[in-house]
Design goal:
205 residues, mainly alpha
Length: 205
């Protein structure tokens, strides 16, 4: 069994690196005759080495902004004239149900993902977190519809639940129709939405 050292690196790797580091420093000592230069090199080399151990990839996690998220989904900057067209084309032509929602309404999807799905996933399985996120989205849609119409609306919450369940099932069964032409993919995606809505009304009745 290998014991982990600093930054999760195996201990023997750190010992080997330490031996190399000492050897390298003394080799440079012969070149850097001035003790001040040698000390500076030693400190600088130590900081670089510690950083490489704690962060071997050298990457820094950067928070994904709304503008970057929309550009990644639509292929154009936020507010661009071609954003809506690209959204429809990419979402309808997605090769999976999850892919459809990955491209559909990225502004709404960004906030749902950031404030609902990601926090839930810290405590719950990703599948359950996904379905709950769809439920929250449907409930918010129903709340807006109720406020606009002035009467209680409760149709979008179960509809979104069924669509979320469809995404979860399709991911579990690894349903993928990306090999088909765009019109066929669009038909499958529209059918998935339509069947979910029909089931919602059937259950309600």
């Amino acid at each position: 069994m290998r014991h982990a050292g600093v930054g999760g690196q195996p201990v023997y790797n750190q010992v080997r690196y330490l031996l190399w580091f000492v050897k390298d420093c003394f080799r440079r000592k012969a070149v850097l005759s001035d003790s001040g230069q040698f000390t500076f090199h030693l400190l600088r080399h130590s900081l670089v080495s510690l950083n490489s151990v704690n962060n071997p990839t050298g990457n820094k996690k950067r928070k994904l902004t709304l503008a970057h998220y929309v550009r990644r989904r639509n292929g154009v900057p936020l507010g661009s004239s071609g954003s809506l067209r690209n959204m429809f084309y990419r979402s309808m032509g997605a090769g999976t149900f999850a892919g459809f929602w990955r491209y559909w309404n990225p502004l709404w999807g960004y906030y749902l993902g950031r404030y609902i799905y990601v926090p839930l996933k810290r405590w719950l399985p990703s599948t359950i977190s996904l379905v709950i996120t769809f439920l929250v989205s449907g409930a918010l849609h129903d709340a807006v519809a109720s406020a606009v119409t002035g009467r209680m609306v409760f149709i979008l919450t179960p509809w979104f639940f069924l669509m979320g369940a469809g995404v979860a099932v399709s991911q579990t069964m690894r349903i993928d129709y990306s090999r088909f032409a765009w019109p066929t993919r669009a038909f499958i995606n529209i059918s998935y939405i339509g069947v979910s809505l029909a089931l919602t009304y059937a259950i309600k009745v």
